[in-house]
Write a structure and sequence with these properties.
Elements lengths: L1 H6 L5 E5 L7 E8 L3 E5 L2 E2 L2 E2 L7 E8 L2 E14 L3 E6 L5 E4 L6 E2 L3 E7 L14 E9 L2 E6 L8 E10 L2 E16 L8 E9 L2 H19 L12
Antiparallel strand pairs: 1-2, 1-6, 2-3, 3-8, 4-5, 6-7, 7-8, 7-9, 10-12, 11-12, 11-14, 12-13, 13-16, 14-15, 15-16
Length: about 230
């Protein structure tokens, strides 16, 4: 239960699903009380999704290297400058590994900047300036090649672009360093840094997964693509 309580923090993104339905409703935690938490009205294509007092909903939260799932009850409406729904705090929380997201080898230019927990409240003031190159990428994180060692536990502001059908799309995320391994190759020292996403919009995650799916299909069809890791 302790972990479930820690997950419920203001401004954390989550997904809601009704049992038996495949539709995903995305929202944001706005308030946390002793026995409940309150979320923004979930929307689909700009239309409010009504939740009814007493109904059960399934909640999905991505944090660290896991996806956390629990079922809870809608307690009713609330108000805190904007209309909200109150949900009961969970009694049980199930953890799923984020490695369920496929990782695929891909070289992309990545900009990053170490940040503190306090910085997370004002991320709009920061611009990642340090340069790296991705080794692989997935919906749950990436591995990148850096010039400096980044210790496990370090929080990073990340930014990179992925190709989409209309051009390029900028992906922004906050990640935590999980692994640091010296990169064995001649030349200046390099480090392979494994990072899991801690804050990323579901839209950006879906863009990553769609990009990797197209990449995998192209490679399996033997479409030539440059997979070399450029020098940083």
């Amino acid at each position: 239960m302790a972990k479930g309580t820690e997950l419920l923090t203001v401004n954390r993104r989550l997904e809601l699903r009704r049992p038996g339905e495949r539709t995903v409703y995305r929202t944001l935690i706005q308030k946390v009380g002793d026995e409940y938490f309150a979320v923004q009205l979930p929307m689909v294509r700009g239309i409010e999704v009504p939740l009814h007092q007493g109904e059960q909903v399934e909640v999905h939260i991505v944090a660290g290297d896991g996806r956390y799932v629990f079922t809870t009850e809608v307690l009713g409406r609330d108000w805190d400058r904007i209309p909200l729904y109150r949900l009961a705090k969970p009694k049980e929380v199930r953890r799923e590994q984020l490695r369920e997201y496929v990782r695929w080898r891909v070289a992309l230019e990545v900009r990053y900047e170490p940040v503190s927990t306090a910085d997370l409240k004002e991320l709009h003031l920061y611009r990642p300036r340090r340069e790296a190159v991705s080794i692989d990428l997935g919906g749950g994180g990436l591995q990148m090649l850096t010039k400096e060692p980044l210790m496990p536990g370090t929080l990073l502001l990340l930014q990179f672009e992925i190709p989409v059908r209309q051009g390029q799309e900028v992906i922004a995320a906050v990640g935590r360093v999980r692994r640091l391994v010296p990169y064995e190759r001649e030349g200046p020292p390099r480090f392979a840094v494994g990072v899991s996403f801690e804050q990323i919009s579901e839209r950006d995650r879906e863009l990553i997964i769609s990009f990797l799916f197209r990449r995998m299909v192209a490679e399996r069809q033997r479409v030539p693509e440059d997979e070399t890791v450029p020098e940083t």
